Amino acid sequence: MSALDDSVQSSAFLRAARGEPVPHTPVWFMRQAGRSLPEYLKIREGTTMLASCMDPDLVTEITLQPVRRYGVDAAIFFSDIVLPLKAIGVDLDIVAGVGPVVANPVRTLADVEAIPDLLPEHVPFITAAVGRLVAELGATPLIGFAGAPFTVASYLVEGGPSKEHAKTKALMFGAPEVWDALMRKIAGISAAYLHVQVAAGASAVQLFDSWAGAVTRSDYERYVMPYSTDVLTSIGVTGVPRIHFGVGTGEILDLMGQAGAEVVGVDWRVPLSEGVRRVGGRSVQGNLDPTLVFAPTEVMLERADQVLAAGRAAPGHIFNLGHGVIPSTNPDQLKRLTDHVHEVSAR
Questions:
Q1: Cβ–Cβ < 8 Å for 35, 325
Q2: Which end of the chain is more exposed for a tag (fewer CB within 10 A), N or C?
Q3: CATH number for the domain including 111?
Q4: What's the CA gap between 260 and 145, in Å, rounded?
Q5: What is the pLDDT at residue 347?
Q6: pLDDT of 3
C-alpha cells in the first residue's frame, strides 16, 4: 500500500464507515457536488446534465468544488443514477424540472431482454474521471455510487419520476417473472457500474434507493431486498465500505442493513437514536433535516448537536443531511455546519 492509499484508508470517513475510532465525526452532504454552488451553476451553463456526467473534465471539477469550499471529509462522484442506462443505449433524457424521462418504458420480458449488460467499455469517461479525481483528492476519499434496482426500475417502468409508483407496483405484483428479470438486469448494471468506479480508485460506495420507502416492509423483503443484496454482495468482494440509503425507509432500516452494507443512511424522518437502534450494530449516516439550513444558524447548529449526540451510540457515525442538499441552499450555511461538526466532535 502506498503512503497515499494509507492516508485515505486512515481518513476519518473510512474509519467511521468501518466502525473504528475517529479524530472527529466526518461530514459530507448528499448532492453536495453542484446543486447550490454558484461555481457549479456557472460551469454547467449550456451543458445538459447527462453531457456533464460524460465529460471527465467537468465531472472532476464539479466533484472537487464542494471539497474545496466546505472542507468535507469525502467527495461524492458527480453523476446520475440513470447514467449507466444512457451509456448502454437506453433512450432517455434528464428533463429540467422533471427528471429522467424514458422514451420506451419497460412492460414485457422482451423489453427487459433488449437492455444490454454494462461493460467497462461503455463508460470509459467514468474510469478517466475517477482516476483524475483520486489523484487530485489526495487523502480525501472518493465515494462511488449507483442507483439501487428498485429506484432505477421505477424510472424504467413509469417512464419518468412518479409519486405513486403505480405502474411499477402493477408490474411487480402482476408480472413477477418480468419484474424478476428486470431487477436482475438492473442489479447487474448497478454492480458493474460500481466495480468500474472502485477499480479506478473510489474507496467507498453508496447505493441510493430513493424510492424504496414506497413499498411495504413485506414487499420490500420479497420484491426489492434480494436484488439490492446482489449489488452489495457483488461489490463487497472489493473490500470497500458500502453505504445503503433510501428515503422514507424508517420501517425497513434493519432490512436495508441486512442487505449487506456496513453503513445505513437514515433519513430525517427517523430520530437518529432510533435509527441506530434499528440498524443493529452498524455504522449510520445522517440525518439533519435538509431544510434546517434555512433556519437561523444557531437553530441549525443546535439540531446538529442533537444528531451528533445520537450518533455516538453507533459503532461509527458519518454526519450528513437526511437527504440531498436543496438547490436554494446558501453554501455559507453548509460551510458553517461542516466547521461546527468538526469542531464540536473533536473535543
A1: yes
A2: C
A3: 3.20.20.210
A4: 15
A5: 84
A6: 62
The DSSP string of 192-212 is HHHHHHHHHT--EEEEEETTG
pLDDT at 35: 80
**Do residues 341 and 311 make contact, with C-beta atoms less than 8 angstroms apart?**
no
Q: Give per-residue burial for 90-102: e unless 16+ CB within 10 Å, then b.
A: bebbbeeeeebbb
Handedness of CA 150, 151, 152, 156 (dihedral sign): positive
Q: Which residues are catalytic?
A: 31, 35, 44, 80, 155
Report the first-to-last Cα separation within the chain, whole angstroms. Answer: 31
Domain with 244, as residue range(s), is 3-346
Q: Chunk the chain into consecutive blocks of 10 residues (it has 347) and report each block's average pLDDT, rounded to whole numbers.
A: 79 98 98 90 93 96 97 96 96 89 96 97 98 97 97 96 95 98 98 98 97 97 98 98 97 97 97 96 97 98 98 98 96 98 95
Number of domains in the chain: 1
CA 155, CA 82: separation in Å to the nearest integer?
A: 8
Which of 70, 67, 95, 69 lies closest to 80 in space, CA to CA? 95
